Each structure stands twice: as C-alpha cells, then as structure tokens.
Hints:
Layout: E1 4-8, E2 14-18, H1 25-29, E3 34-42, H2 48-59, E4 62-63, E5 76-85, E6 89-99, E7 105-113, H3 116-124
Antiparallel strand pairs: 1-2, 3-7, 4-5, 5-6, 6-7
Amino acid sequence: MGENERITSSTGEVHSFHNEDYSWFVFLSFFIPSFFIKLITLFLFLSLSDAINQVVQFLGMMPAEGSEKAEPNAKRHILYLGGRFAGDVPVLSRARMMLQEGGGVQMELIVRSPSQPISTVLASSL
Length: 126
C-alpha cells in the first residue's frame, strides 16, 4: 500500500491517488445522494476477468479493496471502483457481474456522485 497510482478521467485529466484514499469507499457511499443504476449484458466477454478489466479501463476509475481480481472459476463477482471526475467530483461505482450460461456477462452498474448528471453520464457510457 502507499503506492501512488495514476488515473485518467474521461476528460483526459490525470490524477494521482494513494491506495489508502479508497478505504473510505463503503463509508462515503452512504452519504453520496445521487446515483444511477444500469443493467447491461456484455456479450463480448467470455470471462469475468475480461469484463472486469474492460470496465475498469473504460470507466477510468481505480478498483478498490482488491475487487479487480475475480476468484478462479467464479460465476459472480462484485467490482468496486472509485475516482474523481471533471472538477474533482468524487465518484464511486459498484458493478455486480454474473457469468451467463450462453456466454457473456450480465452486469448491474451503480454509479454514485454528488452530481446526478455525472452519475447518469458515467453509467450510460457503457
């Protein structure tokens, strides 16, 4: 821990964070009022690991609490993400993923932010 990581927001801004900055993830999520929920099936991914990597990369947020790694042969996984959006607005996200029998990964994405438009834009971007 204590290692700096860099995050690039969707606006192209690069931010440095310490891993410890996300220990507040669960606590803060109760106090961020604006959220947006989206259900989606990601047909292109045949494994949870592929889906996790692509969601992290696409949203440009940092995984929290080691949630970027799914257990081997897992059928379900929860990914926690945190970051800052344009203007230093805190954003939290939770993606509940389930591997589908016919292929693909079904995902429920919840994005929380003090700004409803930011929550909506980020969740709708997938």
